[in-house]
Amino acid sequence: MKEEQSSLLLKSSSLFPPPQGVKLSYGTAGFRADASILKSAVYRVGILAALRSLKTQSVVGVMITASHNKVTDNGVKIVDPSGGMLSQEWEPFADQLVNAQTPETLLSIIRECVEKEKIPFDGVQSAEILLGRDTRPSGESLLEAAKHGISSIFGAIALDLGILTTPQLHWMVHARNKGMKATEPAYFEQISSSFRCLIDLIPNGTKVNKLDNRVVVDGADGVGGEKLLVLKNMLTDLVIEVRNSGKDGGLLNDGVGADYVQKEKVVPRGFGSNDVGKRCASLDGDADRLVYFSVPSNSSSKIDLVDGDKILSLFALFIKEQLNILTREGNKKSNNNFQAHLGVVQTAYANGASTDYLKQLGLEVIFTPTGVKHLHEKAAQFDIGIYFEANGHGTILFSESFLSWLEARNNELALVSEGSEQQKAALRLLSVSKLINQAVGDALSCLLLVEAILQHMDWSIHKWNELYQDLPSRQLKVKVVDRTAVVTTNAETVAVTPPGIQEAIDAETAKYPRGRCFIRPSGTEDVVRVYAEASTQEAADSLANSVAKLVDQFLGFGSSAQ
Ligand code: 16G
Ligand code: MG
């Protein structure tokens, strides 16, 4: 590393001293904390992003958001050149860099990283970083800190894209590295036009019966609401009413948003008895999660939740149907046949009834640990991989080879049987691959896909919700002395340590019909989480409570679960 580069780094990092006595960890989805202590971390993530861009010789992204956390929190994460999450191999660098106490230690960690990763660091190579932030008030000054970090690496350029949803930034990094247009208008144009294609491909009989093309969306008073106000005007055949758009003074994530709705199972602010029977949806604070719900009666605030598992089931059903049409009898004559490998990916939080349903459809279901990076990685191994967490984060990934086959098949069908059912199925799948975000789960594009499929099927939200009935479940969290004492295996379904706890959990679970229970350390909060499922709500509650007590006995402060 050149002398000038080292002294620039020493000088600029001294302007961003780390907070005393705080240790941050990259965690499941980047660094997150109270915004007041994040400047130094964001500055350093700027440096790391520049190094990552130099190393990969591609554009990378930095997103400033704390998703569904309270408005006073913020966070930062890196988007890799593929548009996905930062490679897990680099997470330890991120931790070391952010926790370095002095400019000198910081410099030596950077040196080590440059050497170990053989990063071309001669000032000749250039690096480019796309920056985005959500609507949090702290976002603007944190984004400035990221710019400082980036400009302290010679040859690195920051491109400030302003306020974006997290998935928009992922989409733009992905698009940019594929040589495609990576602007917000291009994003809106792609998702609205592929939505239109799907609507145009709805079988005629269904269109006549189409009654219900309205959806009411809770924007969590965040960036998703704001963007949806733009997107809705580009759509015909769908009427979106946006509430909690962030434009009318509501507080971000305060009694609103997908996380609140999914966890509390009550109406978000601004929804109530006037909405009985309507199809409603909720985005989270950075619009990478989506859940649906309906208000069943005007006497309580309870909702009927349609969660990520049901979105996954709807998508899987539709994709499978299109694949069946494409490859059915009579079509076999084509010498251009291909058995697409379709797989679905869930976590242990997926409701057991959803897994049963997907298996009944004949689908291959795979489990991974919690966190988008794990699900995404697995789904990418299929020709079509659909992944969802119950909390509403997910997408559909299409492999490059399957897409080239599909394009070719569509062209072939256009010649021999233009307008046939087979060709329509090919076109629908191609439209889905353009509508759904290939980089990361995206609430806006998932919303449009759900709406297109419901119109295609001519289904109400109730019909959709009846695909299967969720098993009653309960989630609890337990404060413990050290959550890292819990180590799990088998996609988090088995606790390996502390010794003896899994046997105790098994003995408890065996007492309940259809009982299922697991514990895992949270990746975002200092707690151990308990999930329990059973045939009745009372049983699920009781199982969760007993296991929370076990966690407390094995690991707690001697206090009881909260
Ligand atoms: C983060 C993850 C989400 C996961 C959640 C679990 C991303 C983008 N987000 O929000 O996938 O479900 O953490 O939180 O990866 P927990 O570890 O506290 O239960
Ligand atoms: Mg989010």
Automatic annotation (TrEMBL):
Domain (Phosphoacetylglucosamine mutase AMG1) ranges: 307-459
Cofactor note: Binds 1 Mg(2+) ion per subunit.
EC number(s) recorded for this UniProt protein: 5.4.2.3
Pathway: Nucleotide-sugar biosynthesis; UDP-N-acetyl-alpha-D-glucosamine biosynthesis; N-acetyl-alpha-D-glucosamine 1-phosphate from alpha-D-glucosamine 6-phosphate (route I): step 2/2
Binding site for Mg(2+): S67, D284, D286, D288
Keyword Metal-binding: yes
Domain Alpha-D-phosphohexomutase C-terminal: 489-549
Domain Alpha-D-phosphohexomutase alpha/beta/alpha: 56-91, 124-177
Reactions catalysed according to its record: N-acetyl-alpha-D-glucosamine 1-phosphate = N-acetyl-D-glucosamine 6-phosphate
Xref: PANTHER family: PHOSPHOACETYLGLUCOSAMINE MUTASE
The family this protein is said to belong to: Belongs to the phosphohexose mutase family.
Full protein name: Phosphoacetylglucosamine mutase
Organism in which the protein naturally occurs: Theobroma cacao
Gene (name only): LOC18594177
